[in-house]
Write a structure and sequence with these properties.
globular, 282 residues, Rossmann fold, alpha/beta, three-stranded mixed β-sheet, 9 helices, four-stranded parallel β-sheet
Length: 282
């Protein structure tokens, strides 16, 4: 059913017409940069929509929830790799602050009723596409994330990739992130649902590979896989970007039996397969 997560009447219809074992909450706005120019939209959808959803779940006695959170809740990390016990602090962007606010709401919900089954998944940087080439990311506007932008440039749908800053304290000066294949990410959700089915309470897991890859390393990997050049231009840093962030995923491996297995060349190959198909469909 299609609709707005802020629409309580619609959510009552959804929950009233079907029976659910639980909810995986993906509904939100996700552009770090855009959130600084549209903060009210981000607070309305990401925070207001989440509260409306949680209220509907209460009305219909659905007590299992997986929430799509973000590594941005850690802000500028003090320790690398970043463990779940690392302090959350005021993130640098409205997007990150909305994720942290929803986590705080869920913390209060979990405290109010220990029988609730709540999982918070802190994604690092999901990229890639389904290996079939049938499911992928093809933004209608200019992409806000690295991998779809690289794919657009490689397919000559955009002229040049902007690299936001090359003066960070990193090996090549560009930002370093923990990129995780979306298929590994999906498997993490399945594992977390299985864990929650057996126990109540509030649980937090990082979903990442535990390895950092710079922007230019990702560009080079994409060029190797696709066999086409990806021209880029270094521009000013974006407000709110941190230099380095990568996960300590040990807790997810220990508790969920989950571990990311797909590397950056596979992420690039699956993205390129999807992008070529998307260009053909256009």
């Amino acid at each position: 059913m299609e609709g707005d997560v802020r629409d309580g009447d619609l959510l009552d219809d959804v929950f009233g017409e079907r029976e659910f074992d639980g909810v995986i909450h993906f509904a939100g706005l996700k552009s770090v940069g855009e959130s600084s120019t549209r903060p009210l939209d981000y607070y309305s959808v990401n925070v207001g929509g989440s509260v409306t959803l949680f209220q509907a779940m209460d009305r219909h006695a659905v007590d299992t929830l997986l929430f799509s959170s973000s590594a941005t809740v850690y802000g500028e990390p003090d320790v690398l790799p970043v463990p779940e016990m690392a302090p959350t602090r005021r993130p640098a962007t409205p997007y990150g602050r909305t994720k942290l606010m929803v986590e705080e709401v869920l913390g209060d919900l979990g405290h109010s009723d220990p029988q609730r089954k709540i999982g918070v998944l802190r994604y690092f940087n999901p990229v890639g596409a389904h290996p079939s080439g049938l499911i992928g990311e093809d933004p209608t506007d200019e992409p806000n994330n690295l991998m779809p932008y690289i794919a657009r440039v490689a397919s000559e749908r955009l002229p040049c990739l902007p690299v936001f800053g090359a003066d960070y304290d990193t090996p090549d000066g560009t930002g370093v992130r923990d990129f995780i294949h979306v298929v590994d990410l999906a498997r993490g959700h399945v594992a977390a649902l299985g864990y929650l089915a057996a126990r109540g309470g509030l649980h937090v897991w990082n979903l990442g590979t535990g390895r950092g890859t710079s922007v230019l390393e990702m560009v080079a990997a994409f060029e190797r896989v696709s066999g086409v050049p990806v021209p880029y231009e270094v521009v000013d840093r974006r407000p709110g970007d941190v230099a380095i962030s990568f996960a300590d995923p040990a807790k997810a491996e220990t508790e969920l039996g989950w571990k990311a297995t797909l590397g950056i060349e596979r992420m690039c190959a699956d993205t390129w397969r999807w992008q070529q198909r998307a260009v053909t469909l256009d």
